Amino acid sequence: MSPNEEILQVPWLEPTMGTMSDTTFGIRQITFDCHDPSKLAEFWSAATGCGISADYGDFVMVDSTPALGFQRVEDPTPGKNRMHIDGGGVERETLVERLKGLGATELGTHEAPGLVWTVMQDPEGNEFCVGNPEA
C-alpha cells in the first residue's frame, strides 16, 4: 500500500480480517442465477435468519452480510458449481436437519483433522457446506 492510500473502514469486516484500501475489492453481495428468485430467497432468508430486503420480481435480495441476491435467468449454468458458500452453526447436525426441513438436500458428510462438514444443495441445486464451529 502506498503512503497516499487511505484505509477505509468497512463495517462488515471483523478486525481480524484486515482492512481495506481504496484499491481493495470488497465482497458486498453474492448473486445466484436461478429459475425462481422468490422461492430461493425465501429458503436462504429462513436458513440465515435474515429478512428479504428487496423484491423486484426478477431480482430478490436477502439482507445478510454479505447480501445475497437471486436473479431470474432462463437457463442457469449447468454442471457443478465452481464456487460455493461455507457456513455453519453451533450444532452442525441440528442445523443440517433444519436446512433439510427448509428444502435443502444432504449430499454427504466429510471429515479432516479438526474439521467436519456436510455438503448440501439448496432447492435449486446450488451446493453449500455446513461445518462445525471451527470451520
UniProtKB/TrEMBL annotation:
It comes from Corynebacterium genitalium ATCC 33030. This is Glyoxalase-like domain-containing protein. Coiled coil: none annotated. InterPro entries: Glyas_Bleomycin-R_OHBP_Dase, Glyoxalase_6. Residues 29-130 form the Glyoxalase-like domain.
